[in-house]
Amino acid sequence: MSKVRVAPAEVEAYLAGVAEPGQGTLRRLRAMLLEVVPEDAVECMSYGVPAFRTTQSIAGNAAAKKHGSYYPMSGRVISRLASELAGYETTKGAIHFGLEKGLPRELVERLVAERVGEMGVGKKKSSSRDQVTGPS
User: What is the C-alpha separation between 122 and 34, in angstroms, rounded?
Assistant: First the structure.
C-alpha cells in the first residue's frame, strides 16, 4: 500500500507563485524527488526554497526568472559529478537548468544517491511509490 504525501502549505505556496513554464518543471522535479529520496525524508522549506531532508538537507530546488536551480546541499556532490554536469551551468552550490527542460530523471537519481551516500543515511524508497496529491 503506498502512502500519499501532500506538500506542506509553504511548499505549495512557493510552487503556486512560480510562473509557467517554471511551475510545471518544478512540480515534475518534485515528483521525481518524492520517488528517489529516502523513505524518512521530509519535505520542507530550507533557505526559502522547497527541499527534502532527513537529519541533513538532501536536495532543494527553486525557480528564477530565466532558469531553475537544483541544490544538492553539498558542493562536493557538484565536484564529484562534474563530468555528468558538463552541459549545465553550475556554481559552488547549485546546478542551473532551463525552465522549459528541467533535469533528466537519471541525473536527479545520481544527485540524490551521491548526497545520501555522502550523508551515510537512509535507503531509497521501495518499489511502491508515493503519490503526489494536489494541483499539478
Answer: 14
